[in-house]
Amino acid sequence: MKPDAPKTLRDILEQAAKSSDFRQFSPSAEDGRIRISYYSSLVDAEKINRYLIAEIQQHFDDIRRLADIQNCIPFDEAEITEDTSEVESKLVKGYVILQIAPEEPAFLIVNINHTERGHRQSNETENEFSVVGPKIGFVENIHVNVHLLRQQIAVTKLVIEEVSIGSLSNTKVMIAYLDGVTNPQHIETMKQRLGKIDFEVVFDTSILDQIISDHTNSPFPLFLSTERVDRVAYAITSGQVAVFADGSPYVFTGPSTFLDFFLSPEDYYLPWVIGSFFRIVRILSVIFSIFVTPVYVAVLTYHFEVIPENILEPLIMSRTHVPLPPVLEALFLEVTIELLREAGARLPTKIGQTLGIVGGIVIGQATVEAALTSSILLIIVALSALASFTTPIFKMANTIRLLRFPLILLAGLWGGMGIVAGFFLLLGHLLRLKSLGIPYLLPLFPLRTGNFGDSFVRRSYRYITNRNIYLRPLDSKRYTPSEDKEDIEHE
Amino acid sequence: MPRQIKESLTVSPYLLWFMIHGTQTGIAMLNFQSRNIKGAQQDSWLSLLLVGLSLHAVVWIIYAIMKHADGGDILHLHRQLFGKWLGGALNLLLYGYMLLFIVYQIRSYMEVIHIWAFPTTPLWFVCLLILLTAVYIVTGGLRVITGICFFCVVIPTLLLVSIYFPIQYAHWTNLLPLLNHTPREYAQSAFHSLNLFYGVEFLLLLYPFIKHQEKSRKWAHIAVAHSTVLYLIVAIVTLAFFNVQQLEHTIWPTLILSKVARLPFIDRFDYVYVFNWFVVILPPVCMAMWAGTRILRQATPLRSKPLVWFTCGMSFVIIAVLQGPKTIDKLDSVVTWAGLVLLYVYLPLLCLWVHIVQRYQNRRAAVEGG
Fold this sequence. Notes:
Structural class of chain A: alpha+beta
Largest sheet of chain A: 5 strands, antiparallel
CATH topology of chain B: Amino acid/polyamine transporter I
CATH class of chain B: Mainly Alpha
Number of domains of chain B: 1
Structural class of chain B: mainly alpha
Oligomer: heterodimer
Radius of gyration of chain A: 30 Å
Distance between the termini of chain A: 87 Å
């Protein structure tokens, strides 16, 4: 047989019959006319027994043609076809094939897949928790996820398009956007890039986002992946495109900018003064987290002159017995923190807590007493680790944690100049990056002051009525702010 | 009509402000005060102002030239006017100027680094870091360079706040008596403030990369005015803080000025200045490296990446060769003369020549057409 010749239904069924979970039988023992074939692991057995087989047996005498079966069974997704090209992929998605006579080329194909089996029921946001606001997150089932999104954005303008990716997984991937708001260019680019993907099994959307990202050699995530429904809904209403994949509780949105990764939904749920304050704290803590250890290394290795006298004394006291040069001392502690974090992430929650105590208190205290590090550095490293966890998006938090290592090395080699050079290498890198063709450092560079009301601070809802202009939405107005309340009071 | 390159590669005209201003501010800002007092002394700020104003004329001349460049930049214009060989030779001279520019900025900065922060580290080690940073930025293309210029203008501007400290100790009477020098002395001072303003010449190569070229004229002038105002502020504060005799014996007055600042968490504020100057010299170094690469790309069939590395290697070798205590002064005067010849002699002549050729061609076209 030629490899590209269309397979007959018989070939397909024979191939499938090699698996032990593949079942073929006739609903009536005496007359083997009707044959039912399916993967028992994929279908809803209860539905098959209660509806399919029961109905067929009940109307058995009336059945002459396939159409008779189609009419008597209570399933929507059923069709009669002779086309065998898609049978194979449908069979492995939980479709059931009904044949009325083995020699007849036409057959009935019915969708009775078990959608909920194996999926977790809890959909709380576990990794992106917020105190205020909804706690609903996405789950592994794409239909549930799309349902959650449609509940939030209840207009027909919300368009969801489907593609299938993965030569072995045939994963359902959905692209969601707001028609008439999202710039068609973003939608086209996203569809084009997703369409070009040739991959085996799509386990998670983060695989897709790496494949389609504009720059593959960058530690920075170029698409924002989140498990929060409100976050995705907000991104879509701002004119971004969201991508769902079946089996993945994470949805990614793009084009994203560097700043997007430091915004939290809570900024919008708290009063704007407090929201803005926490946002600034978060941005400053990132800068602190990246630069504080390198600065310690640079100052203690080369530029002790800059330390004021009253700080110099406790610093010398704590470092007198430390045998290591500052750069090794800092690397040692930073690696220890990384170990604690990595071990904590792999352990169950209860053991993880114990590890936190053992790691944080015992090891920390012991290293200082053993004079492996100075207690001041311990404080600095612990603070910078703490600061790096304020980043709401996990992928970006990882990047922030990585960045300090090259900077510590640069500081160890070139002191303050190394830090400045490192900062500009970083800036040079960030300036190169683009997400779906949009510069990553927007709105800082190219400077777009029009949306500063919702960037480093979040102003009151009265003033942030427009969508971000740099996403080039077709319709930039979000809403009209309500009348001035003072006027109402005066009336 | 002047040609423009592909629109996706062009930059907005307002960014010209940051590109030109960022390129103008360089290493000379650390020590210009002790040089330009030779001559007009406490009136040297007036010479500074005059040079700043003359730069507007230079910008005007550059725009007048570029209007007639069919290829968009000076490199094409040279070939168009002088033929392949003479034009190529002129472009090569321009490449030499770019190398000189890089070497001048880095070598002078290394001297500061050597004296302030790393007296024992070998100089080539410091130079390597600066050049590699520049290479990484330049290989990103003009957009990245523009971004760097933007941040390299914004970040050092924040440091301007620190002149609050020296102003507390300022003796404003140092500026008196006003205007008691001869024109010759003013000219001498002006000559020594020239190298502060070098950087506008990059417009000759940047021109085709600018969106809406006619609108950009405004931003080029704003850039020059910004530089002039900035230098005037620094010069006047310096003159008020030091007296002329003190200044004559100070090598880097700006750094000494920054030592006055006292903050509870940082003792020697001048270190912040020293490392911040890395930020200040980065735009001129990157811009010159980019310009050098552009020139070589015109002359050779190579792609730009190896050429960036070539320019980097050339600069490294020259810097490694330039040792000795008098190097900085020599470099300074070579750069001042080179820029003087380029900006005030060559460009006006070129402008004149372009217009004569243009008029001749127009007349001939009119005769042939009629």
